[in-house]
Amino acid sequence: MKKSLLSALLLSLAAHAGAQETTHADFPDHLSGDIGPGVFRLERNVLGKSDVTEVLPYAYFDYGRFFARLDTFGVKTVKLGAGYLELAARVNFDGMDAERGLNRRSNSIPLGIGTLQETRFGDFFLNAFYDVNKSHGSLLEAVYAAQFDLGRASFYPQFGIERRSSSYNDYYYGVTGAESAASGFRAYHAGATTTPMLGLTVEMPLTGNWVGNITFRRKWLGNGIANSPIVNHSTENMGLVAINYRFK
User: Fold this and answer.
1) Which distant-in-sequence residues (6+ apart) come within 8 Å of 205 by Cβ?
2) What pLDDT, in 10s, does the model give residues 162-190?
3) Is 152 in contact with 206 (CB distance < 8 Å)?
4) Cα separations (Å) of 182 from 69, 105, 130, 226?
5) Is 108:89 a contact under the CB 8 Å cutoff?
6) pLDDT of residue 19
7) Cα–Cα distance between 167 and 159 in angstroms, integer?
8) DSSP string of the chain?
């Protein structure tokens, strides 16, 4: 996807949102949501690297117009349908140190717009990001999350689609001619990809305001990524176990 598409989407959403009224009463004047430690199982899917387990902060909350949703942070602006037009940023750890003849890849800095539409049919997360760092590529995503309860536990199945532009993929998974000569990997140009995702979050109240959370997500990487000579396999998994304090 081109940068112009992201700009067009921004203008379109802003035009629709401008017709909606926003009141200060829509935003909590206190922190509302979950914060706590999380144990993340992160897959390192390049150059034969092993998965890593790390303890990182878990945050899913609102405070006024500000929101945090795990790896996505931003500010709600004007009313848009069943949600708001949001200015958003994402925290990614997709960089790679220089090694085995390949150049260093810096972490992306995706900035853009999005919205969370909370409906009676479930929640719809829509985001359009542009990497303002090295790749200058775009990342678009649409995720649907439902909820059902079973006993004291709540289940949140998720389905999503992610679209990465050719320039985004080529920066992280391509191999230039110079890198090929230095590393022995074949030269490779990574094209744009469409990647489906399935996930499930299980949430269980513990004691008082404490809540337990287990999440698993799997992505099936598009051919532009999966066919790269520096990629290990065509799926990518993320696991999370967190214990959070729920602010109400």
Assistant:
1) 152, 211, 212
2) 999 999 999 999 999 999 999 999 999 99
3) no
4) 41, 16, 31, 22
5) no
6) 46
7) 25
8) --HHHHHHHHHHHHHHHTTS---GGGS-SS-EEEEEEEEEEE---BTTPPPEEEEEEEEEEEETTEEEETTEEEEEEEEETTEEEEEEEE-----B--BTTBPPBPPP-EEEEEEEEEETTEEEEEEEEEE-SSS--EEEEEEEE--EEETTEEEEEEEEEEEE-HHHHHHHH-B-HHHHHHH-PPPB----EEEEEEEEEEEEE-STTEEEEEEEEEEE--HHHHT-TTB--SEEEEEEEEEEEEE-
Give the residue among 228, 247, 225 at the shortest CA–CA distance from 236: 225
pLDDT at 234: 94
- Whether the predicted model's global pTM rises above the 0.90 cut: no
The C-alpha atoms of residue 4 and residue 13 are separated, in whole angstroms, by 14
CB atoms near residue 212 (< 10 Å): 15
Instruction: List, as one string, the DSSP characters of 47-58.
Output: TTPPPEEEEEEE
First to last CA, the chain: 40
pLDDT in tens, 3-31: 455 555 555 555 555 544 555 557 888 99
91-130 burial by CB neighbour count: b if 16+ within 10 A, else e?
ebebebeeeeebeebeebbbbbbbbbbeeeeebbbbbbbb
Q: Which two tokens stand for residue 242?
A: 């967190």
Sign for the pseudo-dihedral over CA of 70, 74, 77, 80? negative
